[in-house]
Amino acid sequence: MSSGQERLSSILRRIDHRGYKAYQDIRGQFRFPGFDLYVDHVQADPFAPPSRFRVRVLQSMAGFPEWSLATPGRRVALADFLARRFSALAAALSHGHGQGAWESESHSHSHSPGGSATPGTGKSGRISMARPGQEILPRNSVLVDADFVEARFTVGLPAAGRSILGRVAEDIICGAVPRLVRDALLFASIPVADLERHIETAEDSDALRAALPGLEIVAFVANGAVLPRRSGVDDRPLDSGNVVPFTSPSSLEVEVTLPNRGPVRGMGVPRGVTLIVGGGYHGKSTLLRAIERGVYNHIPGDGRELVVTSPLAVKIRAEDGRAVTEDDISFFITNLPFGADTRHFSTENASGSTSQAANIVEAIEAGAKVLLVDEDTSATNFMIRDRRMQALVAKDREPITPFIDRVRSLAEDGISTVLVLGGSGDYLDVADTVIMMDEYRPVDVTARAREVAAHFATGRKFEGGEDEHLRPARRVPVSLGFARPGDRRPARTKARGTDAIVLGHEEIDLRNVEQVVDPGQTRFIADALRYLEAHLLDGRTTVPDLIAALEREIAAHGMDVVAPFVHGDYCLARPIEITAALNRLRTLKVSSKPRPDR
Questions:
Q1: What are the residue boundaries of the structural domains of the chain, listed by start?
Q2: SS3 for 528?
Q3: pTM across the whole model
Q4: Is there a contact between 344 and 288 (Cβ–Cβ < 8 Å)?
Q5: Out of 73, 278, 485, 504, which could bridge 282 as a Cys pair, Cβ 3.0 to 4.6 Å?
Q6: How many C-beta atoms lie closer than 10 Å to residue 464's C-beta?
Q7: In 80-233, which ranges are E strands?
Q8: pLDDT, tens only, 167-188
Q9: pLDDT per residue over 486-518, tens digit each?
């Protein structure tokens, strides 16, 4: 036992049965055999958020080989793998899987009252790390580089009422934690074949995504992929019932040679305007959902490991009630009653059509190159105005230029659209590619769609100008406004799953920002916005340039640069989602620079 470990054991024995505040004595750094233990924060009472711990293992002890650290992508996948392993083993220990879960190397019996796996009051005895989902993401729960491996986790320091259970804490910190380090963070204890598969799966996904532009496609869905999920709250692959592996139509099939798997074949979704059609329950939205999640890598066995999408793809939907601040939505909406200016449009309560227009122009402002749209979650009057409605309501009385009359212009400007449709056949006139889902099997019906469009003319009039192109306004944030005058402390942040962020006194609704997939991303976005206001906001820099400056800070210093204290709760979010959260902040104040000429 090292001097640091002996010192920590001595402190825990000394404070046994004392009041809970005495746990503050264990804050600091302790040298254990093979690693350093850091107690960064000690909780105030048994019911408070648990205490924050770190362990750091030098690579001379951890022993991860060069092949696992060779590239940034491999390091991300390695850290993700270790986070999954540490999290699972910690959960097993905390729930008493195996006899003597808290029995340390130096004790022959458990000190847990009644043999409980998580002894005492509140969250006593619970070791936990943020649990990853199906995506392989950059995380700060485990950090890996050529010098060390660091794991960040929490411990519920055990107590009976408010009386310290020092011997139980000793078993946990000096017994269970070293066991976790040994089993989760040392290469000698890792199942090497599983680690190699995890790293190679992520690396192949990265290579496939990088190949998309050269193939002139915006997404790739591999043959054999399993797209359906178990349920709306369970993102694991469907493994029972009629599970239909994906098979590309021959006309859309492409082959890509990957660094580890070698040649793979699958469906390439071309640039331009692609429609996904078919009857209800035949897999249209399931395919779009898989494409939507293809901006991220997935773990082995997920079924979507080789479903990849342009990193600049954004899911667009109507979002009734959201705030809009100084957006130029004139590409879609003009001539509002009472002369409202749609080049500098703001509202506290956007309609479905207005919100969808704002979502598109904001996404493009943030750099989006692919729009993913589902008819079911769109505003009907934003998507289409058919011939009969055109005859009934004259164009000069209708402020909305529908998406059908703008989608080709967007494509000409390099903005592709993938659109799920079940009822608006008028879109056949503007499509480059039409894919029909038939019992979860895709069929290329582009030629047939053109025949149908030619035979059954809609008679509708085109309502967009020939030379009009979307040019987002140059918006300059002046203030995010979530801190109130007179507040003595910096605004606190809080994340509510993937649904919402609380910034000071304000809440941002993210339920309709559908590509936020992990609560760690929500936590990261919250603190990134606070950091942006405190360190980058200058009243002169546009939204895209501010987000780019934030990206550079993160690239240079890691995700921790935005953190108010050391913790392991972050997953990296794309700049597009950070911008989406910024735009939904109701207290956002911006000015508009002159927009480039159309």
A1: 3-190, 474-593
A2: helix
A3: 0.93
A4: no
A5: 278
A6: 17
A7: 127-128, 135-136, 142-144, 148-155, 159-160, 163-164, 217-222, 229-231
A8: 999 999 999 999 999 999 999 9
A9: 676 777 899 999 999 999 889 999 999 999 999
